[in-house]
Amino acid sequence: MQWRSIVVGLVVLRLSVSCVLWLAFGLGSNVSWGFNFHLSFNLHKLDLLFREEKGTDQRNNAWSQRIQGHTYEETASTCAKVGDESLKRSYLNLFDGNKDEYVRRYSSFPDTLKVKMKDMAKEMFYFGYDNYMKYAFPEDELNPIDCEGRGPDVLNPSNININDVLGNYSLTLIDTLDTLLVLGNVTEFQRAVKLVIDTVSFDKDSTVQVFEANIRILGSLISAHILLTDPKHPFGEVGFEGYDNELLHLAHDLAVRLLPAFENTSTGIPYPRVNLKTGVPLDSINETCTAGAGSLLVEFGILSRLIGDSTFEWVARRAVRALWNLRSNETGLLGNVVNIQTGQWVGKQSGLGAGMDSFYEYLLKSYILFGEKEDYKMFQAAYESIQNHLRRGRESCNEGEGDPPLYVNVNMFSGEIMNTWIDSLQAFFPGLQVLNGDVDNAICLHAFYYAIWKRFGALPERYNWQLQAPDVLFYPLRPELVESTYLLYQVSIIMRALKKMPKSGMNHDRMESFFLSETCKYLYLLFDEDNPLHKSDNKYIFTTEGHVVPIDKRFREKQWNEFPCEEGALTKAEPNNWALNNTSNCNRIPEERRYALPLKSVYMRQIDHMVGLF
């Protein structure tokens, strides 16, 4: 009888210890014997947590097996522990003395630090804005090292890196208008609007990319006009005496000058560039990227509904439909470069980064704004194809074994991997996943990009996930990771890294307008919990350039009949129930995870190791 008691006691002890460890680390998922954890699986994960003590070399193992190594040093960035007064303490806080490094580092963000970060974001914005106005205005951009302005490269028309964006129309000032309001500077906003009205003209012999002119100029003019005339006054009384819709007139004028891009194409997909005075250049190429041709619908659609002219929305929607009808029958994927006359795919790479990114973004955002069922049907189908063919790694972000989820570049027809790099523009995708309600996948992908940031102090333009090294050593102060962080409403150490960078952005003599219109805006909003965008009863969405537009019922009303139905297209308007259908995944998240880190420490460590942090 005594030995039986000993055996029973040992079994009970093992179960008790397993329960405690499961509660402490949240490492259980499967059910054995009626409990919500699997004993052997939990012990395996605990072994991963403490394997660094063994010092074994496992560099040739899979990512999911290479978890040992580095212990992070505590720095000034380490956040304070959650105070005892918190009513909803993490279940991990039951074991404060045994918190792992990730819980200690990321479990809280003090209010005093939020205020400091907000002030740093504002300082960063005004450093760029004030110096642009002092040294560069009315030219398009500031060269921060030389402290001089830059316009189009008229001596080298083939320099599309510059000429696609700069049109000799005070780009940075226009692109920055709504950021001034977000930062609460009504006086400077009004002064900037008057400067635009008094000095900007689009009657210029400038050849620009349709996509860039649309998202940076047209989108900002529309956004600023809406905020100026919004009867709800979310930012207070921002209008001024004598304003007579001049920004809307400028937007209309620019859009008319972009329309020739949609003419004389066999597919309805627009030419990539137009001359603002003469139309499509005679030597224009017949190739364009999917994002460039398919990311015009938000701005063109809002303009159409503001002025009651369906032309702009119709041409933009026709281009989206044309691209959609060219997708692969086998995978449902699109390529990244297409011939606008033949409809043949010139670039067969399908991914989430450059050439593809905002196409997916605008399918969903167009639906949110306009309520067209067609847009959401396309987005749902595209998202399913992305999950089926681009996503690699374990099925669940926060459970199970295997490599962390990763989205790769594949051949649009076969789904086979084409290369082993991803680019920084792909970092927008977690934010889009949040809008779609797929928060779990968003958390995992965001953690991957943040790990790359932690390793290199910035997000390389192109990162090779197989070599764990950048392919392109360059960071032009892009906003995509900050945007996704904002939409996840997390806080990070990105601000400190930006603060330490050279004021010009990695010694690069160019301050692109998106740094002020997006990067600084999202950083500021991350830490300004009392911003009108957060407190207002009105709901807002951001364009792909970060411009603020309200989700307004007037954008779901048209002054014209439905667009002609085309093959594969749905045109019936969807009821305004997006918010009801996509409110939250909270009910599906276990109670113990709601107040803990969004990603379990074991998986955060795995992702850090995946990018070579240790």
From TrEMBL:
Under Pfam families, the record lists:
Glyco_hydro_47
Stated membrane topology is:
Single-pass type II membrane protein
Q: Which GO terms describe its cellular component?
A: endoplasmic reticulum membrane; endoplasmic reticulum quality control compartment
Any one GO biological process: response to unfolded protein
The subcellular localization recorded is: Endoplasmic reticulum membrane
Which top-level enzyme class is recorded in the Swiss-Prot or TrEMBL entry?
hydrolase
State the UniProt keywords alphabetically.
Calcium, Endoplasmic reticulum, Glycoprotein, Glycosidase, Hydrolase, Membrane, Metal-binding, Signal-anchor, Transmembrane, Transmembrane helix, Unfolded protein response
User: Do you know which SUPFAM superfamilies this protein is assigned to?
Assistant: Seven-hairpin glycosidases
Q: What does this protein do?
A: Extracts misfolded glycoproteins, but not glycoproteins undergoing productive folding, from the calnexin cycle. It is directly involved in endoplasmic reticulum-associated degradation (ERAD) and targets misfolded glycoproteins for degradation in an N-glycan-independent manner, probably by forming a complex with SEL1L. It has low mannosidase activity, catalyzing mannose trimming from Man8GlcNAc2 to Man7GlcNAc2.
Q: Which family does it belong to?
A: Belongs to the glycosyl hydrolase 47 family.
Q: State the name under which the record lists this protein.
A: alpha-1,2-Mannosidase
Which organism does this record belong to? Sphaeramia orbicularis (orbiculate cardinalfish)
Q: Which gene encodes it?
A: edem1
